[in-house]
C-alpha cells in the first residue's frame, strides 16, 4: 500500500504538491487546469481567507455546489485547517438544505452561483457567513468588507486526532430521512489508498468527473485518490447529458471515470440496442445466443471508441448493474468494473478491476478490511454483509440510537445489504435487507432481481416492485415519448390530434402491460410472480446515485 507520512490531509496535500508540482491537478473541460503547485497555493490562500472570516478550527462549513476545481480547493483548505466540511448534494431541495444547516450547526456555507436561488426559500439565519464558491465573493452583508486575497498565505498546518470527525455527510438515502455520517480524515484517506490497490493509478492519468463531489463515491475514488496519485481531474460545466458528455470524452480521452448503473443502462437501451435492432441482419444475429456475442463485441468496440478509446477503468457503483447490460459489456470487452460500498464505509469495501470482473459479482474485499456474512442462510449462504476496518465511520451525528443499531461494540458495521461469498471470497450483492420481501411460505424475494427483468422489456424505462396486502405489485414507468413517436410514424393521419394520440398510447401501454406480465411470470419462480401491474406515468424520485427512493412508494 502507498504510504504518506500520516493519514491526514495536511500530509497528503504537502506530499502531492511536492511530488507532482508541475502536473495538471483540477480543471474544467476545454478551459485549462491548475497545477498541483497552484492548487497548493490556492488552498493556502483559502485557509487565510477562512481565518480572516473568523471561521476557526472545529467549526462546520457547508459546501453546496456543482463540481468545479474550487470545490476541491475549498474542501482541502477546510480539512487542512481543522474545520469540519459538510458536503451537501446539489440536488438537495431548499427544505433538505435547511435541515442540514440546522442539524449540523454549521457556521458558514460555500455555495455555487447556480444554486443561489435555493437560498430564497432557505432559513440561513444561523449561518454567520455565506460565500460564493465560484469567485469567493462574500454574500453576507456584514462581512462584505472582507475580500479574498489570492496571494495570501496561511501558516496553518492542522494535524487532526486519528478518530476526530472531519467530514459530515448527509445521505439522501432510499429509506427515509437523511442521517449525518461522521467520517475522519483517516477514514477517507485510508479508503482512497484501499481503492488504489483495486485499480492501479499512474501519475498523469486523466479522470473525468460526472458524479457529485458531495457523494462519498466520487469524493474518495474520483477526487482524493487521483490527487493522492498525481493524476488530473476534469469537470464539466453542464450536466453530463449525451450531447455534452460524448464530445468531451472523445476530446479528453479519459483513463478513468466513475458512473452509476443508470448511465450505462441508458446508453445501452437508448443507443446500442436500437442500433442493433435497426437492421434485419444484426437483429437476427442478436436474437441467437451463439451470434449475439459477436454483435456485442462489435458494438462494444464502437462504444469504447465513442468514449475516447483510452479508458482503462469504467467504474460502476451505487446500485446493482442490470444483468443484460453487464452481459453486453463483458461480450464487448468493455473495461468496466464493479464496486460496492456505503457512505458509512467511506465508501468502498469490495470491488474488482476490469481484468478481473465476474458476471453479476462485485469482487473481493478491499485490503485492510474485514467482511463477513452475518447469520448466513444454511442453504444459500446469503445473509447481511458486515464490515470492519479503518474506513468504517465514527457514527451518526447526534444520533446515538441509530449508531448503536448499526455499529456493534467490537466495531462491526451492519450494512443492511444482503450478500453471499463464492468459494474464492468474491462478494455478490443481493439487495437491501429492508427491501427483501418474505413470501407466504418464508421464501426470500428480492425485488431488485424482478425489476431487472422488467426493465429489459421493450419501452420500459424503470420499475419498482413492492408488496401490498400480501401481493407483489410492479409499478412500471413506460417510455411514453417513444411510444407516441412510434404511433405518429405508423399513423401519419393523427398529426396534432393529441387526445386521439394519448388514447392510442394508453391502449398500447395496456397491451404492453399484459404482455409484460405474461413474459415476466414465465421467467421467475412461483413465489416471485407479480400479481398486479400499475403504469407509473412519471419517473421515480431518485438519490444522487440514481437509486429510487423506495420509501416514497410503499
Description:
The protein is α/β, with parallel strands linked by helices. It has three domains: 227 residues, Rossmann fold; 174 residues, Rossmann fold (3-Layer(aba) Sandwich); 117 residues, GMP Synthetase, Chain A, domain 3. It is 35% helix and 21% strand. The protein has 15 helices and 25 strands. The strands form six sheets. Strands 2-1-11-10-12-13-14-15 form an eight-stranded mixed beta sheet. A five-stranded mixed beta sheet has the order 4-3-5-6-7, with helices on both faces. The protein has a four-stranded antiparallel beta sheet with strand order 16-17-19-20. A hairpin with a 2-residue loop joins strand 23 and strand 24. Helix 5 packs across helix 6 and helix 9 crosses helix 10. The protein starts with 8 loop residues before the first helix and ends in a 19-residue tail after the last strand. The mean pLDDT is 93.
Describe the structure using short key phrases:
554 residues; alpha/beta; Rossmann fold; GMP Synthetase, Chain A, domain 3; 3 domains; eight-stranded mixed β-sheet; five-stranded mixed β-sheet; 15 helices; 25 strands; 21% strand; globular
Amino acid at each position: 500500500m502507498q504510504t504518506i507520512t500520516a493519514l491526514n490531509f495536511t500530509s497528503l496535500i504537502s506530499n502531492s504538491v511536492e511530488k507532482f508540482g508541475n502536473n495538471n491537478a483540477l480543471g474544467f473541460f476545454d478551459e485549462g487546469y491548475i497545477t498541483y503547485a497552484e492548487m497548493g497555493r490556492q488552498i493556502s490562500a483559502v485557509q487565510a481567507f477562512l481565518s480572516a472570516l473568523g471561521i476557526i478550527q472545529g467549526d462546520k462549513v457547508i459546501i453546496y455546489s456543482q463540481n468545479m476545481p474550487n470545490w476541491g480547493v475549498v474542501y482541502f483548505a477546510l480539512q487542512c485547517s481543522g474545520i469540519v466540511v459538510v458536503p451537501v448534494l446539489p440536488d438537495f431541495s431548499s427544505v433538505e438544505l435547511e435541515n442540514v444547516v440546522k442539524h449540523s450547526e454549521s457556521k458558514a456555507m460555500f455555495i455555487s452561483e447556480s444554486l443561489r436561488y435555493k437560498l430564497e426559500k432557505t432559513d440561513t439565519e444561523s449561518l454567520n457567513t455565506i460565500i460564493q464558491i465560484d469567485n469567493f465573493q462574500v454574500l453576507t452583508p456584514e462581512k462584505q468588507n472582507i475580500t479574498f486575497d489570492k496571494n495570501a498565505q496561511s501558516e496553518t498546518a492542522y494535524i487532526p486526532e486519528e478518530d476526530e470527525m472531519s467530514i459530515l455527510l448527509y445521505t439522501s438515502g432510499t429509506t427515509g430521512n437523511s442521517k449525518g455520517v461522521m467520517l475522519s480524515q483517516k477514514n477517507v484517506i485510508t479508503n482512497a489508498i484501499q481503492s488504489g490497490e483495486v485499480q492501479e493509478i499512474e501519475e498523469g492519468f486523466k479522470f473525468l468527473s460526472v458524479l457529485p463531489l458531495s457523494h462519498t463515491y466520487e469524493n474518495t475514488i474520483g477526487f482524493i485518490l487521483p490527487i493522492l496519485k498525481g493524476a488530473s481531474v476534469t469537470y464539466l460545466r453542464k450536466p453530463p447529458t449525451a450531447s455534452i458528455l460524448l464530445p468531451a470524452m472523445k476530446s479528453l480521452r479519459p483513463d478513468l471515470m466513475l458512473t452509476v448503473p443508470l448511465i450505462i443502462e441508458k446508453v445501452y437501451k437508448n443507443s446500442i440496442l436500437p442500433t442493433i435492432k435497426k437492421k434485419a441482419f444484426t437483429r437476427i444475429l442478436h436474437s441467437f445466443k451463439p451470434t449475439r456475442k459477436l454483435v456485442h463485441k462489435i458494438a462494444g468496440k464502437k462504444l469504447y471508441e465513442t468514449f475516447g478509446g483510452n479508458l482503462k477503468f469504467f467504474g460502476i457503483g451505487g446500485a446493482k448493474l442490470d444483468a443484460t447490460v453487464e452481459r453486453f459489456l463483458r461480450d464487448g470487452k468493455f473495461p468496466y468494473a464493479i464496486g460496492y460500498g456505503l457512505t458509512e464505509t467511506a465508501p468502498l469495501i469490495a470491488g474488482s478491476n476490469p481484468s478481473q470482473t465476474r458476471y453479476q459479482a462485485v469482487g473481493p474485499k478491499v485490503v485492510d478490511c474485514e467482511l463477513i456474512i452475518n447469520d448466513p442462510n444454511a442453504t444459500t449462504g446469503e445473509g447481511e454483509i458486515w464490515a470492519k476496518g479503518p474506513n468504517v465511520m465514527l457514527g451518526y451525528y447526534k444520533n446515538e440510537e441509530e449508531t448503536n443499531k448499526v455499529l456493534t461494540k467490537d466495531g462491526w458495521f451492519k450494512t443492511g445489504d444482503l450478500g453471499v461469498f463464492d468459494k474464492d471470497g468474491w462478494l455478490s450483492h443481493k439487495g437491501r435487507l429492508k427491501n427483501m420481501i418474505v413470501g407466504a411460505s418464508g421464501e426470500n424475494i428480492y425485488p431488485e432481481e424482478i425489476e431487472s427483468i422488467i426493465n429489459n422489456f421493450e419501452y420500459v424505462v424503470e420499475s419498482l416492485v413492492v408488496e401490498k396486502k400480501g401481493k407483489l405489485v410492479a409499478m412500471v414507468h413506460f417510455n411514453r415519448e417513444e411510444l407516441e413517436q412510434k404511433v405518429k410514424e405508423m399513423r401519419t393521419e393523427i398529426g396534432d390530434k393529441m387526445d386521439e394520440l394519448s388514447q392510442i398510447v394508453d391502449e398500447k401501454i395496456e397491451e404492453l402491460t399484459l404482455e409484460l406480465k405474461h413474459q415476466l411470470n414465465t421467467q421467475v419462480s412461483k413465489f416471485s410472480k407479480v400479481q398486479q401491474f400499475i403504469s407509473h406515468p412519471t419517473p421515480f424520485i431518485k438519490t444522487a446515485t440514481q437509486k429510487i427512493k423506495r420509501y416514497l412508494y410503499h
